[in-house]
Specification:
Helices cover 43% and strands 19% of the residues. The chain is built from twelve helices and 15 strands. The strands form three sheets. An eight-stranded parallel beta sheet has the order 8-7-6-5-4-3-10-9. A five-stranded mixed beta sheet has the order 11-12-13-14-15. Helix 1 runs parallel beside helix 9 and helix 5 packs across helix 6. The radius of gyration is 23 Å and the shape is elongated.
């Protein structure tokens, strides 16, 4: 874990230094935790459907949710959506400056907008003033697939230099209006292009960076592509908030985002299951068991670890470093480990229920310990 980097320096990630902004009540950048975002795919004008999807994303752990506001009906519904949401709402604005003003007035925490695309200088001033008046931050969102024509003519194709130049041009407009509450993204569907653009941007400006490999694809291949691209950047310390763009249920984006951060020790939420791929040595059906446990433990938000290993070759060693462990044995039974130590034998028949019970108990124990530690730090009255 990152908190053990003083004894395991090879796990340490030195995050890029940048200024911090606020997206509603959520800090982004600086020393704030890296946040996980997704975007609704309902019609924003259908407030009830959009709120229902936001609720699913909140339960999955979303820190921030973005909604598209392509028309006046969408911004008209935004006030209701914002009031019902427990997390900050980002309004996605393209081209029409009035939508940006309406979204700010409706209570959006952030506007995803490219100021150079919304018209003349007066329109830019109006949107910036609305953001300032209503406490909105902004995200400049550059995509390789929609670069400005002059940049494509200059560079011949989407490339890191073109994307960074676009981002800095848009940023300069906000800076010229003395508006600095913004973050930037420079996304492409190609992980190579994405990573190279963010590396250059990270050197060029000190604002927070929103990471993503855009249009990554379906659940499996999109997850892999995102893990490669985002993993490279996060490992090198780049990134303050992330969105995994999948052609799948938006809830899956939140799950994948947290899994990427958990793998790098940057965020911890829920049960981290360590499981073997299984082989002829397994003492129980590992794959089936892990699938069931993943579903039954989805409600646990406490950061903790669980090892499910089919046999004694690696099982005891893995269990030494997990909160709860189960190692397959012979004669239809295995061994339960608690806090790295052998606890008791358990028949395979009741294994899942026993593991769920032990994980819930350990989660309650960890929560109580954290609450006690927090209380001890509070100043005496």
């Amino acid at each position: 874990m990152s908190e053990l980097s003083h004894i395991r320096p090879w796990r340490h990630i030195e995050r890029r230094k940048c200024r911090q902004i606020m997206v509603g009540s959520v800090p982004v950048g600086g020393d704030a935790p890296i946040t996980v975002q997704s975007m609704t795919n309902t019609l924003t004008s259908d407030a009830a459907a959009t709120i229902a999807q936001i609720r699913q994303l909140e339960e999955a752990g979303a820190d921030i949710v973005r909604v598209s506001c392509p028309d006046e009906a969408s911004t008209a519904a935004l006030g209701t959506i914002v009031r019902e949401s427990r997390v900050p709402i980002v309004a996605d604005i393209h081209f029409h400056y009035k939508r940006g003003i309406e979204a700010a007035e409706a209570g959006a925490a952030c506007l995803r907008i490219n100021p150079g695309n919304i018209g003349n200088a007066q329109r830019v001033r109006d949107v910036v003033q609305a953001a300032r008046d209503h406490g909105c931050s902004m995200r400049i969102g550059v995509n390789a697939g929609s670069l400005e024509r002059d940049l494509l003519e200059k560079y011949g194709e989407p490339c890191p230099e073109a994307m960074v130049e676009s981002a800095l041009n848009h940023a300069r407009i906000l800076q010229d209006h003395d508006f600095h509450e913004f973050k930037i993204s420079v996304k492409a569907s190609d992980p190579f292009l994405t990573v190279a653009a963010y590396q250059q941007l990270a050197e060029a400006i000190d604002c927070p960076l929103h990471l993503g490999v855009t249009e990554a694809g379906p659940l499996r291949s999109g997850t892999i592509k995102s893990a490669i691209g985002l993993g490279n950047m996060l490992w090198s310390g780049i990134g303050d908030t992330i969105r995994v763009s999948l052609a799948a249920d938006p809830v899956e984006e939140i799950k994948v985002g947290f899994d990427i951060l958990k793998s790098l020790g940057l965020r911890h939420r829920g049960v981290n299951i360590i499981a073997c791929p299984s082989c002829a040595r397994q003492g129980f059906n590992v794959i089936e068991t892990v699938g069931i446990l993943e579903e039954k433990l989805a409600h646990i938000t406490t950061p903790m670890s669980l090892s499910i290993i089919g046999c004694v070759v690696n099982g005891p060693g893995e269990a030494l470093y997990t909160d709860v462990g189960f190692t397959g044995g012979g004669a239809g039974a295995g061994m339960v480990y608690l806090n790295g130590k052998m606890a008791h034998k358990q028949a395979n028949a009741g294994m899942v229920d026993e593991i769920v019970q032990q994980v819930e108990a350990r989660a309650a124990e960890l929560d109580a310990a954290r609450a006690a530690a927090a209380q001890a730090l509070e100043p005496a009255e």
